[in-house]
Amino acid sequence: MVILIGNQKGGAGKSTLTLLFANYLTQIKKRKVTVLDMDYQQSLASKAEKAKILENEPLYEVVPADLKHFPSLHSALSNRSGELILIDLPGKMDDDGLLPLFAAADLVLCPFSYDEFSVDSTVLFAMVLRKINNKAPFIFIPNRIKNTVKYETRAEIENVMQRFGVMAPGLADRVDFQRISTFQTPLILYPVVLPLLDLIYGQYLDWEEQT
Question: Do the beta carbons of residue 166 and residue 139 sit within 8 Å?
Answer without folding.
Answer: yes
